[in-house]
From TrEMBL:
Encoding gene (name): recF
GO molecular function: ATP binding; ATP hydrolysis activity; single-stranded DNA binding
Entries under InterPro entries matching the protein: DNA-binding_RecF, DNA-binding_RecF_CS, P-loop_NTPase, Rad50/SbcC_AAA, RecF_2
Organism: Solirubrobacter ginsenosidimutans
Listed name of the protein: DNA replication and repair protein RecF
GO cellular component: cytoplasm
Length: 366
């Protein structure tokens, strides 16, 4: 499934825009503040009904406007589709797929999956483990939608166990009720760990391949780091039992997959601590590219890649490598202040959008 055209009204800096997206690479260029990231965000918003940039979604409605509307035309081998999103702060969103209202766009097959790289996504490499866990769980859910419930079931069991620990601590409940919850937590925990492990195992070879291809030198590795060593639910129950005193002292569960991490390593050392900024960027890109290929293999359709300002910290060789990879397979939209930063962008197979004076122009050298 590819996106072919985006039309919008009153989104961020745009009063109206209507742009074509290429089946391969589309380059959005313009000076700082022109509205490039806004356009990328609009594509994401049209695909998912959410912003990839802010939790305060009223920000996306153009200053002075009441509501924003976006329409995204898509296409696959079987035909054309259309997604539309209407958003008025304070009201429920109006989402439609092929003309029919839907509650959300998550499971909608009329649109491509999207994968987005914003500069602040480097937090995925640099930030707290919770970000990596939640990203990993999103990949699990994208690869195998039926398994999305595992994480929720685990979180619910964890919340129950924590509530019980607090009650025992306060003398309002007895320890005798713990084992039942431990078994429940362990059952979901083992399933969650198995999903995460399977996902990382699938991503690992592609990750290493992309890292090498993009010029991240040395031995580069993606590794799942579960907190628990348990091989089955009984093992995890035993680990929980060993730590029950410290859990009771703290009032929450200190052990289990809610403490897992995902490590990006180069030459045996964490990219997070020792990598250069460019290396960290390449690590993140390698992960997104690996995910895209696995999704394409599993779901039969590659996600649309949205890459914001990804070239600015890369040298000429690495820009070249990334661009040729992006032109080779899948659909991608990339923003840049300088067209020269995207080598080969003058080729016919690359769609170009120029942002100027608050408008998105196409087919004219601005
Ligand atoms: N809701 C809104 N209504 C109108 N304008 C907005 C709104 N939100 C943001 N803007 C404007 O959008 C502009 C920024 O756009 P954007 O972030 O897309 O720039 P950019 O082209 O990505 O720039 P850079 O190269 O610096 O990343 C700012 O001038 C900002 O004032
Ligand atoms: Mg920007």
């Amino acid at each position: 499934m590819i996106a072919t055209r985006l039309s919008l009204r009153d989104f961020r800096s745009y009063s109206a825009a209507d742009v074509r997206l290429g089946p391969g690479l589309t380059v959005v260029s313009g000076r700082n503040g022109a509205g490039k990231t806004n356009l990328l965000e609009a594509i994401y918003f049209a695909c998912t009904g959410r912003s990839c940039r802010t939790a305060n979604e009223r920000e996306v409605v153009r200053f002075g406007a009441e509501l924003t509307r976006l329409e995204l035309a898509c296409e696959d081998a079987l035909g054309r589709h259309e997604i539309s999103v209407g958003f008025k702060p304070g009201d429920a969103k109006r989402l439609k797929a092929d003309g029919a209202p839907v509650d959300n766009l998550v499971g909608v097959s009329a649109r491509p999956l999207v994968s987005v790289f914003l500069p602040d996504r480097l937090e995925l490499v640099l930030g707290a483990p919770a970000l990596r866990r939640s990203h990993l769980d999103q990949v699990v859910a994208a690869l195998w939608p039926a398994r999305a419930g595992t994480r929720r079931a685990y979180s619910a069991a964890l919340a129950q166990r924590n509530a019980l620990l607090a009650s025992i601590r306060a003398g309002r409940a007895s320890k005798a009720s713990l084992p039942a919850w431990d078994a429940e937590l362990a059952r979901h925990g083992i399933a969650l760990m198995a999903d995460r492990d399977a996902t990382v195992e699938r991503l690992r070879p592609r990750f290493a391949e992309h890292a090498a291809g993009l010029g991240l030198e040395g031995e580069v590795e993606l590794r799942y780091r579960p907190r628990s060593k348990a091989a089955d639910a009984a093992g995890l129950v035993a680990e929980l039992a060993e730590r029950v005193e410290s859990d009771l002292e703290r009032g929450f569960t200190g052990h289990g997959p809610h403490r897992d991490d995902l490590a990006f390593r180069r030459e045996g050392r964490e990219l997070r601590a020792y990598g250069s900024r460019g290396q960290q960027r390449l690590g993140l890109l390698s992960l997104l590219l690996a995910e895209r290929e696995e999704l394409a293999a599993e779901r039969g359709s590659a996600p649309l890649l949205l890459l914001d300002d990804v070239m600015s910290e890369l040298d000429a060789t690495r820009r070249e490598r990334l661009t040729s990879l992006l032109r080779r397979d899948g659909q991608a939209v990339i923003t840049t202040t300088e067209l020269e930063h995207v080598p080969g962008s003058d080729a016919d197979d690359v769609e170009k959008i120029f942002i100027e004076g608050g408008r998105a122009l196409q087919g004219v050298e601005a």
